[in-house]
Design brief:
Pfam families: Fe-S_biosyn. The protein has 120 residues and is of the alpha/beta class. Helices cover 15% and strands 38% of the residues.
Length: 120
C-alpha cells in the first residue's frame, strides 16, 4: 500500500509522520550514498531496557504487508507488525550542540528508559 502525502505540518494519527527537517536530512544522506532506490525503513523490535527499541535504516527490500508513505520525495516504509506502535509518531532530526540525530516522538509509548533508547 503506497500513499502520497505532503510532509505534514500537522501530525496524523493514522500513520507515521516525517518532519520537513527529517525529510531533508534523509534526502541528503541518500545523495551522499549516491542511491535513489532506497527507502527509510522504521520498525519496532524487542529489546532495550523498556522492552521495545526503534530501528531506522535504509532498505531496498519490500516485505509483504509493508505500509509505504511518500513524504516530499522520501519513501518511508513500516512493516505491518510495527504499524500499531508507530501510528501518530513523529520522526524528526535534531542538530544541536547537545545532540545530533533522528528523534521519535511517539504518543503510543507509555514510558521509556533513562537512556531514551527504548520504550514500552
Amino acid at each position: 500500500m503506497t500513499e502520497q502525502v505532503d510532509t505534514p505540518t500537522e501530525r496524523r494519527t493514522d500513520q507515521i509522520n516525517l518532519s520537513q527537517v527529517a525529510a531533508t536530512k534523509v534526502k541528503t544522506l541518500l545523495e551522499q550514498e549516491g542511491r535513489d532506490d532506497l527507502a527509510l525503513r522504521i520498525s519496532v523490535q524487542p529489546g532495550g531496557c523498556s522492552g521495545l527499541r526503534y530501528q531506522l535504516f535504509f532498505d531496498e527490500r519490500t516485505l509483504d504487508g509493508d505500509v509505504t508513505t511518500d513524504f516530499d520525495g522520501v519513501t518511508v516504509v513500516v512493516d505491518r507488525m510495527s504499524v500499531p506502535y508507530l501510528n501518530g509518531a513523529m520522526i524528526d532530526f535534531v542538530d544541536s550542540i547537545e545532540k545530533q540525530g533522528f528523534t521519535i516522538d511517539n504518543p503510543n509509548a507509555t514510558g521509556s528508559c533513562a537512556c531514551g533508547d527504548s520504550f514500552h
